[in-house]
Design goal:
Blueprint: H1 2-20, H2 27-41, H3 47-55, H4 79-93, H5 103-119, H6 127-143, H7 150-160, H8 169-185, H9 189-201, E1 210-211, E2 217-218, H10 229-244, H11 256-265, E3 271-272, E4 275-276, H12 289-307, H13 312-318, E5 326-330, E6 335-339, E7 344-348, E8 374-378, E9 400-403, E10 423-427, E11 432-440, E12 443-452, E13 455-465, E14 470-479, E15 484-487, E16 491-493, E17 498-502, E18 506-509, E19 512-515, E20 522-531, E21 545-555, E22 563-570, H14 575-583, E23 587-592, E24 596-601, E25 606-611, E26 615-617, E27 623-625, E28 629-636, E29 639-645, E30 653-659, E31 662-663, E32 668-672, E33 677-683, E34 694-700
Antiparallel strand pairs: 1-2, 3-4, 5-6, 6-7, 7-8, 9-14, 10-11, 11-12, 12-13, 13-22, 14-21, 15-16, 15-18, 17-20, 18-19, 19-22, 20-21, 23-24, 24-25, 25-28, 26-27, 27-30, 28-29, 29-34, 30-33, 31-34, 32-33
Length: 702
Amino acid sequence: MIRFNSIILLLVVSTSIWAQKKADYPANLKQLHQNVVDEFLNNSLRTDTLQAICNKLLPNGSWPEIDYTSQQRGSWPPVFHLSYIQTFARAYQKPESVFYHDPKMRETILKALNYWLDNDFQCPNWWYPEIGVPMQLGPTLILMENDLSAEQLSKGIQILDRAKIRMTGQNKVWLSGNVLMKSLLLRDTAMIRKASQSIQEELKVSLSEGIQPDGSFHQHGPQIQFGNYGLAYVGDMIKWIRMLRNTPFEFDESRLTILRNYLLDGQQWISWKNQLDISACGRQLFMNAQTGKARNLANDFTQMETLDPNFAAVYQKAKQYTSLSGNKHFWRSDFQVQRTPAYYFSVKMCSARVLGAESCNSENIRGYYLGDGATYLYQSAREYENIFPFWDWKKIPGTTTHEDDKELPVLTAGGYHIASNFVGGVSDGKSGIAVMDYVRDGVSVQKAWFIFNDQIICLGAGITSSTGILVTTSVNQSFLNGEVIVKTNSERILPAEASETLSPRWILHDGTGYYFPTNNHLKLENKTVTGSWNRVALMYKDEPIKARIFKLWFEHGADPSGQTYAYCIVPQATKAKMQQLEARPTFQILSNDATIQAVVTADQNMGGIIFYQAGKSELFHEIEADQPCVILVKREGNRLSVSVSDPTQKLSQIRLTLNGKFQTENTDVNRNQKQNKTQFLVDLPKGSEAGKTVTLNLVEIK
């Protein structure tokens, strides 16, 4: 009875609206209605494409290529029907369009709309009935309002009514936007105000879902979602700020600062050479996703030039990948990025705090290890573009994992954590160190990345497993491009198809060098691989495709105990550069065990230490820490820059002891004259900044 009465009420309301449609919207909604119409008529249209789609419409109002019976949870095919109708409605109402007020186009729109309204197709995934379908249908109803019957409008509003204001982050923005569009049709000022406030409430920095204090974006718990929810969030916020401007419901313009900072301090970091970093794409490792998402982000920057004109030059510059160089550690997301005009490198980790990856709607069904220290080096930006059908998913670059013949478990929408809290990094803005005390599925290893002077020194220590299953560490797995040169006792070029076990000094492939400072046994494969997009996401057909893949990895045995690995990734490498590195190494590994990992450059001007427990390192004569931490040290004359972080994010202070006499400002100093030592008590960031780097600038006293 309640549902019947609700339907009757909707019919009465919509009939009343239909009767007054020819009249203007009330004064307080007139500008909002105009803004909404302008927003959806602003997009460009391709006449030839529209005509081709129109020509395929069947007499019953359906399209033959759409599977309306599909129960697919992701990329649900029937929603294309609504997308077509919305595009037609924009063409019909756009004065510049050849279809402007064309009777045949009107007939096509109404016929196709009736087919949907009469069948009310619904996906088993909640997102489509509540978000996806109303998001496509709402603009169509507003654009075609004067051409709809009372029955059509009533049926449409019932579908829109499935969206309710709830949830958090981008899901809440989507839902609130759908409610606002429905409320505009109903001329419900109070609900429009409530929905607009709900959208604005999500334009904030938060410790829950949404923009994080470090510039990253979380959704589905503490999980980095730059290129999925976080990218949709940017587009939606730009849209709603624009549509609500000069109305009684407009944004507080000061919130633009939050959106600007998120774009410049977060999103800008993960797009390089028109590619979005794989680690930023979330579960959406779709065909052409990396380029498509980067293109959408570039478009967002373009739109911000007019939305936020005082910073137009900044947004224009942000679209140039060479404009941003440096190192950034996202302490809220266990993610570090190094970028220069010549290359981009990232490492994605997870912890007891941060989720590693998710699988949902049969997407990312092999991404079991995507958050376990995944590293990607981009130079041409083609190294991994659409590589996913061909990957050995047990050898994601940078990860240490089990190797067997079993299928990988499929992750849930809840994702996964590892058991360790000692995961994080330190960054001084130019160089950085990332660390992951990895514990998962019976494998444990202390993994570290020292990013110094355009080299990435990768260390692993304490590699242990008692499962009886082979353990491997993947150095890289990319498309094979050109020759592979291997230096063992002599240099040689590998055959086009090769599979070898070797102990190299260095390897060179596709402008990337791999230098091995210690005697390690590796396996290398160059071969043609047969893959399928269906292996990545079930929405794709299982059609075989081929590509040539370069794969390089360590094998640690079935039951390793305390094993190590060490290698250096060299961007912009040449044969001469690798020969020189072998002859005169640019760094020294001081320690690589389960208690301390430490590296220093050959000129002794930069070094890093990871203390897994309180201890001492010989770096710069001696540095001691009374708590586990990560330290990056740089020397310039008598000046020392010491950057410190707490990967556990639990400590309030760390006491450092350095050999020598030093002074600094704003830090407690205790000098031991007899032992020639200086102690510093470092106050660590707390709350939303726990895990962030603290830098001390010291001066040595002679």
